[in-house]
Amino acid sequence: MVAITSLQKEHITEAVRKMYTEVATKPEKQFHFPTGRPACEYVGYPASQLDAIPATAVESFAGVGYPFAADFIREGDHVLDVGSGSGTDVLIAAMLTGTLGKVYALDMTQAMRDKLHANASLAGVANIDIIPGHAEDVPLHDASVDVVTSNGVLNLVPDKRTAFSEIHRVLRPGGRVQIADIVVNKEISEQCRQDPKLWSECIVGAMEEQDYLNLFRAVGFRAVSVLSHLDYFAASASQETRNVAASFGAVTVVMQALK
Description:
Elements: H1 6-25, H2 36-43, H3 47-51, H4 55-58, E1 78-82, H5 88-97, E2 102-107, H6 110-123, E3 128-132, E4 145-151, H7 160-170, E5 171-184, H8 190-193, H9 196-200, E6 207-208, H10 209-218, E7 222-230, H11 239-248, E8 251-258
Parallel strand pairs: 1-2, 1-4, 2-3, 4-5, 5-6
Antiparallel strand pairs: 5-8, 7-8
Helix pairs in contact: 1-6
């Protein structure tokens, strides 16, 4: 993996935060990646789940797959959503875990956290704890959650080893991971990886699939397996984005793992 300096990391983080602030505050805007309910339906969310949560949560959806295909969340579980956004996955998780459980919604973008707070109130859901932060430094105690879910976020994180280690740290023994993320099948140049703007476009921060899965194994996970692949960027409104994604073989992978 290419080394990212602290200054570059700050610039990448700011570019990503700016992009997702727009997704939160301007959901009607056309982005280079699919968003909103059409994106949810394209990646596999059942209409019954989408109909059960506020439309204002779904309108700012920017995930890349359907991590709930792992069917890992049980009633009473404590769940961490890494990169929770406006709340589509958080609210679904909250319904699955029920009032006996809890969902921690971690996001670094203030606009997304504000929107999630409003959506949780609108949905009448009280078992959600919205926390500022990012994947490389999760503000939760060791072994404090049963499930970690994430959707289209880890590809945006510069230090993936640290992020994956943090996921492992906060999970209880036997804990489960369900993730949808972008991977590539062609090495991305160092020059591309040094461009913060390109990171916010969801492709150049992605790892090659086997390296991604092996890094989960390297930090201590077992039973790491792939549930599905999806040509996510085929649904982009941007021909340029479709071309760039195709040139790198960028696709969604939905995967699961156990601690």
